[in-house]
Amino acid sequence: MCRLLLIALFVPALAPAWNHVGHKAVAGLAYDLLTPAARSRVDALIARHPDYQRWLTVEAPKEPGARARHAFIQSSYWPDTIKVDLRFYDESRREEPATPTLPGFPDMKRRTNWHYINIAFSADGTPFPPPPPVNALTQINMILGVLEGKITGTSEADPIYLLPWLLHLVGDVHNPMHCTSRWKKDQVDPRTGTPWSDLGGNGVSVVGSFNLHAFWDDALGITDTPGFVNGLVQFLSAKGKEGSTVLEPQTWITEGARFAETVCYNYGSNGTGTRENPVTFSQEYTQRARELARERAALAGRRLAGVLNSRLH
Ligand SMILES: [Zn+2]
Q1: How far is the CA of 18 from the centre of ligand 1 (A)?
Q2: Which one of 30, 73, 176, 271 is least enclosed by Cβ atoms within 10 Å?
Q3: Is CATH 1.10.575.10 the right assignment for the domain spanning 3-311?
Q4: Ligand 1 midpoint to CA 114 (Å)
Q5: Ligand 1 centroid from CA 115, angstroms
Q6: 215 C-alpha to center of ligand 1: Å?
Q7: Who surrounds ion ligand 1 at CB < 5 A?
Q8: Which has the higher per-residue pLDDT, 67 or 95?
């Protein structure tokens, strides 16, 4: 396989994190739990976002309250949509020129490194580096600081721009595969031949799914219609009660990294995860994954409502 293709397949930014369905269900559950004061604040912020009209899709209800909820839900997936939107550019690629800044945006960066933290671990003693300096945790904390008015003066410090990012990132870090990366001696960087990260499970091939990361992204379902999303919101509203008052992002990520190690990577030895020998999941694993994904998504929705209710009143 050509080296460039191999590298492209391993780039974690390509992985969307909970798919559309997961992000929208988290946002829908959170919206339904907002206080009237917080709801009117978020509605006003979302309506002033430069891409607001794009969120009023053909399915958007006409009734103003339902329409505002619809836009809020749609906005939660916006940070993933800009990864393929040509108005934006990938600032991590030196060869990619900046695109012109459009009205209402601080710039047109895709900020693909905001979506995960990937706290490394290794079961075979392979050395690994600390998380990157800019990651999902640093950015959630930054956004909360902006919403509280404690952080001002940077080009990004705009609650209108950052609110969809918050909805998205709280969802992302409740997907355990956004919290960790496994390092193994026999898993090597194709460029250098030295031990490497599996990039949040993107490097673990799985039968019936693109890879381990993608399997978890899709664990909440893949039917992206308002009817399905609202059904999922209703289903999730009975879950995620224990721990829902924990509003410290570091704790959410510590929990996620622990679940990744103990559940997500605990798939037995039916396959090694290479492209030649992909892993096959048992029915028990798949069932456990679905249950954990639903619990984490419900917690994400409740905690998102909690941080918004405590800051926007
Ligand atoms: Zn994401």
Answers
A1: 7
A2: 271
A3: yes
A4: 8
A5: 4
A6: 15
A7: 17, 115, 172
A8: 67
What is the whole-number distance in angstroms between the Cα of residue 90 and the centre of ligand 1? 15
Q: What is the distance in A from the centroid of ligand 1 to the CA of 71?
A: 18
The Cα 239–Cα 25 span in angstroms is: 13
Cα 103 to averaged position of ligand 1 atoms, centre (Å): 24
Cα dihedral across residues 193, 199, 201, 207: positive or negative: negative
Write out pLDDT tens, residues 162-198. 999 999 999 999 999 999 999 999 888 888 988 989 9
